[in-house]
Amino acid sequence: MWINYLDQALLLAALAVSVNLLVGYAGQVSVAHAAFAGVGGYAVCFLAGVHGWPYLASLVVAVLVATAFGVLIGLIALGLAQEFLILMTLAFSLGIIGVFATFDSLGGVMGLTGVDGLRLFGFELDGPSDWLIPSALVLVLVFAVCHRLGESPYGRVLKGIREDTVATRALGKNTFGRKVGIFAITSGLSGLVGGVYSGWLGQATPSAFGFPLAMAVFAMVIVGGNANLVGSIVAGVVLTMIEPVLREVLGVQSTQAALWQVVLYGALLVLVMIVRPQGLFPERSKRVAAPGTARSDVSPRSPSGGVAYADAEVVLRADGLSKRFGGITAAKDIALELRRGTITALVGPNGAGKTTAFNLLTGTVVPDTGSVRLNGAELVGMRPDLIVRAGLVRTFQDVRLLDRLTCLENVMLAVPDQPGERLGRLFVPGRGVSRADRAVAAQAMEWLDFVGMADHAGTPADALSYGQSKLVSLARALATRADVLLLDEPASGVDATWVETMLSMVAAVRDEGRTVCLVEHNLDVVRELSDHTYFMELGEITASGTLAELTGSARLAEAYFGAQ
Amino acid sequence: MPTRMPIPRTSHRGTTARRRRRLIAPVVAALTAATLAACGSGDAGVSAEDAQSQATDLVKLLNIKDGTDLGGKVEFKLGAALTLSGPSASNGASMKNAIELATKQIKAAGGPTITLSVKDIKGPDPVAAKQAASELASERVPAKITSMGDGLGAMLADTDKNKILSLDGVGGAQVFTKGTQYFYGTREVAPSDAVPGALEWFKRANPKGRTVGLVGVDLGPLNAAIQADMKAKIEAAGLTFNGLWETVSPSSQDYASMISKVKKNEPDLLWVAFGGAAPGAFVAQAKSAGIGSELLGIEFTQEAVKASKGVLDKDGFKFAMDYFDAAKPSNPLAKLFAEAYEKAYGEPADFYAANAYEETLMVWDLVRRVVAAGGDPSDSTQLKAALEKDPKFASVYGGDGGTVGTLQIDLATHGVAKRPMGVFEYKDGKVKPLATYDVKGQDFRLAD
Amino acid sequence: MHDLLDAELWQLTANGLVRGAFYAALGAGLALVIGVTTRFHFAYALTYTVAPYIAFWVMDALGVPFWPSALIGLGAAVVVSVLLEAGVYEPVARRAADRAMLAVLVTSIGVSTAGIALLQLKFGTSSLPFYGPDQVRHDIGPVRISNFEIDQVATCLVLVAGLAAFLAFTPIGRSIKAVRSNPGLASVLGISVRRVNLVCFAIAGLISGACALWYGLLYTVQPTMGDTTVIYGFVVAFLAGTRSSPLRALPVGIGLGLLEQWASIWLSLQWTQTAVFTVLAGYLAFLAVRGRLPRIRSVSLRRA
């Protein structure tokens, strides 16, 4: 009997591990993975049980079908706000189980039962002890895949999505694609677990994959700890064993044991959420050994040596950008140029549309009309992450570091073209990925060193002071190797000692030959840094020139500078 | 009950006092609930003295010859797969009571020491049923009292694989149990066996009635076979199946849509093929919606009375089945059982209890036969052989004031060869027979 | 045959309206909670189930007459709802900070199923004999309807309209709306967000309890009665919008009720519930596609 429960515990733990990859790492809450397991289970029972396919082949189909469902649901639901994702997965899981229960060929409400005599690699899977090895193998396989994905550069992107999808996308990562991808992968893994679970049960029934299973798996993930796969396994085994232990060891009546198990699940969830929300086994921060500060080939380029603004090459040119939200004109006919090796400032009163202008340039908001050309290539209509890859990166007024990641991880995330972010490369044998990741860490360290934050590499971002976090966000933007940097108020809210540091940083970036555009309220900063200044009011650029020219204009001085 | 309990200190900064107060609420709630639940489960049962006196009568009634080895030295492990939770929980509970009563009486009578291993198949929930099957297999029980067509089919494969002699007094030998060697149904196949007699009654009670329809629980792919069987029997009776065959999943007791369908195609006789509480809920809603058909249930329980909110008491409820009437036991064994059960558990025995009771006696009978032949009663193949050799057993059904009834298994169908049943009506707390008959409508007699 | 079909259609329509009002009220209550407090209140199923269970217990064990018992049951639903917010959601959300939504969702599911399991431990797993006053049936043309159904519709409409009026005309109602549109700003303006949340949970408890008591009178009281009901509540809440007037729940709820009933004309009974989820999934898919439409359009404009 205990072996039978152990089979179940291993399989549920495997399900919890795959759900944890989605919920814990990528922060996407899905109630549907029990139903994906059901898809797998039904596929196996239908093919192997009813139509006599080999078990292995039906398992492969189970994984494929579950993955396909995952892609479909992911495409629909992952573009929506989080509450809609929960609702959509809820609707899907109830709907799909309802549909299964409607077809007579799938056994209707009774499901497909009496699936027997399955064979795997020539071994007949008969009693509980025969299933122990397949169950353990599935757990090992699912754990290996999830661990590989979670604790790799790919997992770092997932964590970025979890912490702040917009910020992660602004570092050039295809967040929507990643979300759909991870949703599909975990669906496929759930399908695999479901296929084995159904084989072990000898049946696929609507009740076996209904809401109670989803609830149990959630309890395992939360109690075990988000983004800690070992925690999920421990919690999976422990929680599954509650009922039999109550019944067999503590002598609780079988009718009551099942109910008490549910009560304990609930009580545990509440207790854990209040006392230890990170779960029994909290997420471990990756300790990247801080590489030495030895300069490598990616060292900042040598100063370009004072190019006159008028002579500098135009890197980015925007024309006629307009955007209306409902009846409000947020941006009207914005045209501007950014020139290589220079610093351009965007100034204007609050609400003038400066941040909107950044949003339009970076594709975060799609303009109604107008064009943005970077080195001659049109950016309007491109996905925001591709715009970053094309060489236009931004920082945020509210910084948006990824709180639970260390400074080093924040910067590493920004490094483009990491082989470890590609699924294909992750499962190729060899040390290529980890070698590449060490190189990425080294690069990131250089950028941290560049902004003077190398000592804080291992510090979680939420432990930094505001000024420090602005520096790290600059390092992060630099690490994307984008040519053009849009800095949203790099010096605001930073105390005076940091302003100096910040100024020298930005100047150093310019001297590196990159192009900088900044939005800034602090006119001292603008005066010190900017080669050219645009003045915005009410969504329009109404004047441009050097800051001295602008402050010389009586009208503008009254409109904005007068207030200073 | 403790009012204070130590709260684990958290490693986090900040005030713990406030959090502590927060925590107390759920913890106290859980403890309160625990106490409540613990109080709720008092253990009733037959007392040792009662069992002893009943045992003496039992040995007499079973007509066991003096000097027969009663199996007193045998340690027998009996399994039970019952619906102890879910919508059919009360069936399982009364079956468990009856089995426990029987095992105590058997022990007191000098029979084997029967240790009972009860598994909850919840509902039946196929997963729980499967779990129960594999647990019983690992405990190596040679026989089990089972239910619901062995968990609506989910356990059947294991029943044969592990050779567990299984006696089902709830579902009987349903179509889908056919071919399971170790499975026997010890009651009529509901509703199939009861249909011919019931239709005969209907024709006599409603000479103008012509059409028959059915509502019931969804049994998935089994529906088709059951429908074909019903249709054939309706036609054989010279009536017409009007095409109304509506099934819903057993989880819901809101029948508004179903009743609309019935209204659209109202038959003269409507079979209400639900179990447990559902017939009560359905009949109440059907009456409220003005359904004029004659409604005929396939089983009757107090659960249904409760769920009908008084409609069954007020308007009455007719049903066709092998009903066990604890108030009017039909033979001395039935009387012994009904009285012993009521005394031990403070409530009248229902037919689930009666069936489980006679099944337990049947297991004892088989053990005696194997022991008498010098065999090993823990070997289920020997138990099965003994059954096949003479498939007749004592029954709490049928018989008369002086004679114990007979339960005869049909070795071809694994169901019952004969079973006294009838059409009954419940009203105002009392059940009275309207007609009595046997399998295939034989021995049909209108009640006076 | 023709008029028979018509009669059926009328009956189904009446059923749909009755059911729709019920869904609308449930949805309006849940929408209030989700919109104002941002709690994914799954335990709505628990407060729903608690009302008839407590009412039954008061009647059965204490011998109190029906209507006072129903009021006590209703009160119990409100108390449970408020306690959930004060004792579970609020501390959980505070601890979880930025991940409050997931934390609350998970605890809510946990508390709900655990609470319902406790009810089962106390009252058993099968249905309760929940009796009320006598049911009286009225025939209106081809439609047969009971007094309970009429009362239920009236209760639901009063609840929804009352909620709308409460939000529009009372000071606390206006505070609720302020929190709904901007909780940060509202608390700066001196509105106690905590108190507003508690009021919302009290209202949601009241609505769920009232709906459940009528449902219990009409049908059966059983531990699983809240399961699908809460799903319908979510569906209505999201389709009607969690930040709009409760009155919008009415057309949505009634639409769903009619859809579910009319579907049984063409579909087999097993399909009718699935039909509702299909509509929901379709709507969400539409939202998702529409969310990306502007970008698709502007790309094509550029290319043109």
Automatic annotation (TrEMBL), chain A:
<keyword id="KW-1003">Cell membrane</keyword>
<protein>
    <submittedName>
        <fullName>Branched-chain amino acid ABC transporter ATP-binding protein/permease</fullName>
    </submittedName>
</protein>
<dbReference type="GO" id="GO:0005886">
    <property type="term" value="C:plasma membrane"/>
</dbReference>
<dbReference type="InterPro" id="IPR043428">
    <property type="entry name" value="LivM-like"/>
</dbReference>
<dbReference type="InterPro" id="IPR001851">
    <property type="entry name" value="ABC_transp_permease"/>
</dbReference>
<dbReference type="GO" id="GO:0016887">
    <property type="term" value="F:ATP hydrolysis activity"/>
</dbReference>
<dbReference type="InterPro" id="IPR003593">
    <property type="entry name" value="AAA+_ATPase"/>
</dbReference>
<dbReference type="Pfam" id="PF02653">
    <property type="entry name" value="BPD_transp_2"/>
</dbReference>
<keyword id="KW-0067">ATP-binding</keyword>
<feature type="transmembrane region" description="Helical">
    <location>
        <begin position="84"/>
        <end position="103"/>
    </location>
</feature>
<feature type="transmembrane region" description="Helical">
    <location>
        <begin position="131"/>
        <end position="150"/>
    </location>
</feature>
<keyword id="KW-0813">Transport</keyword>
<dbReference type="InterPro" id="IPR003439">
    <property type="entry name" value="ABC_transporter-like_ATP-bd"/>
</dbReference>
<feature type="transmembrane region" description="Helical">
    <location>
        <begin position="53"/>
        <end position="77"/>
    </location>
</feature>
<feature type="domain" description="ABC transporter">
    <location>
        <begin position="316"/>
        <end position="563"/>
    </location>
</feature>
<keyword id="KW-0812">Transmembrane</keyword>
<dbReference type="Pfam" id="PF00005">
    <property type="entry name" value="ABC_tran"/>
</dbReference>
<dbReference type="GO" id="GO:0015658">
    <property type="term" value="F:branched-chain amino acid transmembrane transporter activity"/>
</dbReference>
<dbReference type="InterPro" id="IPR027417">
    <property type="entry name" value="P-loop_NTPase"/>
</dbReference>
<keyword id="KW-1133">Transmembrane helix</keyword>
<dbReference type="InterPro" id="IPR051120">
    <property type="entry name" value="ABC_AA/LPS_Transport"/>
</dbReference>
<feature type="transmembrane region" description="Helical">
    <location>
        <begin position="258"/>
        <end position="275"/>
    </location>
</feature>
UniProtKB/TrEMBL annotation, chain C:
<feature type="transmembrane region" description="Helical">
    <location>
        <begin position="196"/>
        <end position="218"/>
    </location>
</feature>
<feature type="transmembrane region" description="Helical">
    <location>
        <begin position="100"/>
        <end position="121"/>
    </location>
</feature>
<dbReference type="GO" id="GO:0005886">
    <property type="term" value="C:plasma membrane"/>
</dbReference>
<feature type="transmembrane region" description="Helical">
    <location>
        <begin position="42"/>
        <end position="59"/>
    </location>
</feature>
<keyword id="KW-0029">Amino-acid transport</keyword>
<dbReference type="InterPro" id="IPR001851">
    <property type="entry name" value="ABC_transp_permease"/>
</dbReference>
<keyword id="KW-0472">Membrane</keyword>
<dbReference type="GO" id="GO:0022857">
    <property type="term" value="F:transmembrane transporter activity"/>
</dbReference>
<comment type="similarity">
    <text>Belongs to the binding-protein-dependent transport system permease family. LivHM subfamily.</text>
</comment>
<keyword id="KW-0813">Transport</keyword>
<keyword id="KW-0812">Transmembrane</keyword>
<keyword id="KW-1003">Cell membrane</keyword>
<feature type="transmembrane region" description="Helical">
    <location>
        <begin position="20"/>
        <end position="37"/>
    </location>
</feature>
<dbReference type="GO" id="GO:0006865">
    <property type="term" value="P:amino acid transport"/>
</dbReference>
<dbReference type="InterPro" id="IPR052157">
    <property type="entry name" value="BCAA_transport_permease"/>
</dbReference>
<feature type="transmembrane region" description="Helical">
    <location>
        <begin position="152"/>
        <end position="176"/>
    </location>
</feature>
<feature type="transmembrane region" description="Helical">
    <location>
        <begin position="275"/>
        <end position="293"/>
    </location>
</feature>
<keyword id="KW-1133">Transmembrane helix</keyword>
<feature type="transmembrane region" description="Helical">
    <location>
        <begin position="65"/>
        <end position="88"/>
    </location>
</feature>
<dbReference type="Pfam" id="PF02653">
    <property type="entry name" value="BPD_transp_2"/>
</dbReference>
<protein>
    <submittedName>
        <fullName>Branched-chain amino acid ABC transporter permease</fullName>
    </submittedName>
</protein>
